[in-house]
Amino acid sequence: MASSRSLNGGSLSFPSQRLLALAQQLSHYKPPPCSSDADDNEERTIEEATGKVVSQVGFQESATPIAQNPERFRPRRAAVLICLFEGDAGDLRVILTKRSSRMSTHSGEVSLPGGKAEEGDKDDTETATREAHEEIGLDPSLVNIVTVLEPFLSKHLLRVVPVIGILNDKKAFEPTPNADEVDEVFNAPLEMFIKDENRTEEEREWMGEKYLMHTFEYEAENKKKYIIWGLTAGVLIRAASLVYQRPPAFLEQNPKFKFPKVVDKSTVMR
Question: What's the pLDDT tens digit per position in 234-261?
Fold first, then answer.
């Protein structure tokens, strides 16, 4: 069992030297500054200093200046967990869920475990691990958090922070899906999200800007097929690019979004 130091200075154990090396690699990643929604002044300072906003459905941070009205861009915060482990064939895999068909939003879609931040959450890591525990029964003690990525924006203007963790004992994790939220728990190879295989793309437009929406089809060992697209696909493209230290083998065509002067519930990205 390989050991390392956590982001907070504590000792962590990893199942293999490969995962230890990956954890050390990822721990050096420094995302753009993020702030708490509770501190509007700090957030305004960061956004004005960088002159950037995050972009929609899994694209990386947009280069679009928002100096015209930065104080009006205040999306709610959420976090998702990118939980990685080594598969039996030695490949690096990520835990995914298929949302319940009874959910009011994104029903039946594939997603990463996660959800909206709650008042008691001290940071994005706690939001992601708490939600993963509630949704699929993943004990936070089984996950070694190694880094967080830059925020992304969902089509409903929810700011989503991806948190990357490594499962320290895959045999100890027995998925127990919350039937109200999750129909299935499965895993897929992370590398597929930077390969140009089983992938389709669709050109879309929002507020006059065109971009590409990527969709991946994955067939599990039990022959079940899953469609992974939108925010989830975009986050996993970014995570895979970072883990494997190479860009995807396809054109991403990230949009340069121009946010409306006033963002309200009727403003969604389609």
Answer: 999 999 999 999 999 999 987 665 545 5
Structure tokens at 242: 């970072």
Residues in CB range of 256: below 8 A, 6 or more apart: 62, 63, 64, 209
List the one residue out of 141, 135, 140, 97 whose CA is nearest residue 116.
Answer: 135
Residue 25: its H or E element? helix 17-27
Q: Which amino acid is located at 223 in the chain?
A: K
Full DSSP string of 196-226? SSSEEEEEEEETTEEEEEEEEEEE-TTS-EE
Residue 69 predicted with pLDDT over 50: no
180-190 mean pLDDT:
96
Residue 13 corresponds to which tokens in the numbers above?
Answer: 């154990």
SS3 136: helix
Position 57 in a domain: yes
Which of helix, strand or coil describes residue 269? coil
pTM attached to this predicted model: 0.81
pLDDT for 53 equals 37
CATH number at residue 54: 3.90.79.10
Cβ(232)–Cβ(59) below 8 Å: no
Query: By residue range, what is the domain housing residue 42?
Result: 2-184
